[in-house]
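## retry 2 of 3
previous attempt timed out at serialization; input unchanged, resubmitting
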Amino acid sequence: MIVHLFEDQKFVDITIENFENVSVGLNKYIVFSNNQELKYVSKKEQTLILPNSSYKLDLDLIYKDCQLLIIHFLSPIKLYVLKNKPPHIKVIWSVWGSDAYDHFSDQILFEPLTNNVRRRSLFQHRKSFYLYTLYHLVRYRVKPLRKELKLLQLVNYVITVLPYEFKIIKNEFGLIAKYLDYNYGVNKFNIFSNVPLGNSILIGNSATSSNNHLDVFDIIKDTNKKLIVPLSYGAYDFKNYKELVISEGMRIFKNSFTPIEEFMPLQDYRELTASCNSVIMYHIRQQALGNIFMSLFQGMRVFLNSKSLTYSYLKDKGMIIFDLQKDNKLIGIELNEEQKRNNRDIVLKLRGRNVVREKTQRIINLYHSSVININQ
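## retry succeeded, writing output
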């Protein structure tokens, strides 16, 4: 059996759909949550909810009949599960982003204005680091990832959102794992195709400082367009950061600034984004790729940070995308039909339903080969 480990996250439903389409009954989907009412997962009848506590966790229940373990985002509770892995089980770590990048020794993820804000708050973080490590150890019975690098040697395969990321992550953590090509996909593209666009601007995907909101605001401070800024979720300190972004956004842009503070169903969110013709994702690290692909498929003009792997990767694939620093005068100008068609075709080539199905089948094939090796 393939055992999938999640938290209550938006990618759970699409993962279940992807794997059940090619391997009905072969998978067990576990969601770690202290709440039986899940916020993002609708396929509840296909999931097993387990407590997000190492002291209440039944490891035998997780590993019963398991030959392949897939860790979707390496959180502390999953690191504890990995620590107690039986030796015959193969492990895939599907890196989402912050589960790796937040533990890098050098955090070169922020533009100057955002970095200044972070520096002002880092002193308190440094004072509390020992307490954080202690809390981590007491609650999860593992230390923070940077102090548990030996456990990563138990990982056999690593999935990254972009293939360009694998070498960087492998070198950072000294991994012996092999690269595995897989992505969750955004399979329902056609629902949102051929939708007329408005002339607002979408900025960022979350209330996390890696969005570099303050630097974006400075670059586009003279715009008179309406700004839509999703801030409904973020990291552990996201509420303070969200308040800062809203305060600065309202100060600079007044009534043109619209923060989105509550989670929205996908259909409602896509209708909101369709009111935009330009999207700014100014992350340096890989982030929000699902949003970026959907924006490209919808025909929006997408502005990225030219320092990012995402920018390099999409440029190399032939996408028509833009560097916010150099091309910001094009904000609000809609792409022509030929440009939209180019981007839409590439999105389907990289993330369409058939592509995701083929990549999912490769994982099933890997599982079957693991079972054969165990039984020999």
